[in-house]
């Protein structure tokens, strides 16, 4: 009996050990499989993330091209307007000179006619005739006066004709310059259009990659944190490289500031943006290429591209007040520039991965965002 129990115990022990070894083997296999899958997923995620970052840089490059073309186009249009004004001035000068030329020609013709009428007296005979000395003296004075007047008028006429020729040459040069500017404008427009199309393709790829790598909310939070950090650094740093400017802040202008661009408010301050995120400024639905104007005088302290916000310009108004303008197509001012209230500082765009054109506008006091609606009229 005891022998039988021993046999049963041994068999049971062997079965338990065998089962335990089998379980351990399966657990190890499962762990190895999980680890391999994790390594595969991690590698895939890294590849996707690298692709995502590459697409972000690609989008930035295209938006840089757009900004360069748009700024050059703006300067070209400014040159065209200046050229037209110069041509208008030259044409007015031409009209005035032509009128002066006609007047001088008429005066000269009248004097020549008068000289011809008196020519029957024969100037040489009058010199030889000594009978009427008083009359002779008056006649000689008359001849001398009109002779000098004719010479002066002829010289003036020659100068007018010379000025007309110079004006005509200037007009032809201005017209050639205008033709060159129009050619540049056409080329810039074509380049801008091509860059916009490339940017749109890049944006579609970026949005597709974004869905594969991380949530849109996490991406937006990262972008907002980048902006907050940048503004915090601007607020705290001492800009030794900037020329000191006396700025009076915005406090006295509360409720009186002009809006930086025309358009309806697409998003308002404090509205829910995404889960755990609210708008720190407003989005104004404006047209691409519209002027973005400074709401008050100040000094540019930041002008660069930021993830999610595109081309951004920040103006320091003094006493802790700053205004921020984002999603611009291009920036017209650089760091250190002093700007006046109402002066154009950028052009409306959709940089930073925006699907539609518009202006992102923030007002901040000592680093904290304030509602622009309460400050702008």
Model description:
With 377 residues, the protein is α+β, with helices and mostly antiparallel strands. The radius of gyration is 41 Å and the shape is elongated. Strands 1, 4, 5, 6, 7, 8, 9, 10, 11 and 12 form a ten-stranded antiparallel sheet that branches. The chain contains five helices and twelve strands. A hairpin with a 3-residue loop joins β6 (298-306) and β7. The relative contact order is 0.10. The chain folds into two domains: 56-211, Helix Hairpins, CATH 1.10.287; 216-375, Glucose Permease (Domain IIA) (Distorted Sandwich). Residues 1-22 form the signal peptide. Pfam families: Peptidase_M23 (PF01551).
What secondary-structure arrangement, pairings included, does this model have?
Blueprint (H helix, E strand, L loop, with lengths): L1 H117 L4 H6 L4 H81 L2 H21 L27 E4 L4 E3 L2 E2 L3 E4 L5 E3 L4 E9 L3 E9 L2 E11 L6 E2 L4 E5 L10 E7 L2 E3 L1 H4 L2
Antiparallel strand pairs: 1-4, 2-3, 4-11, 5-10, 6-7, 6-9, 7-8, 8-10, 8-11, 11-12
Helix pairs in contact: 1-3
Keywords: Coiled coil, Signal
Pfam families: Peptidase_M23
InterPro entries: Cell_wall_metabolism_enzyme, Dup_hybrid_motif, M23ase_b-sheet_dom
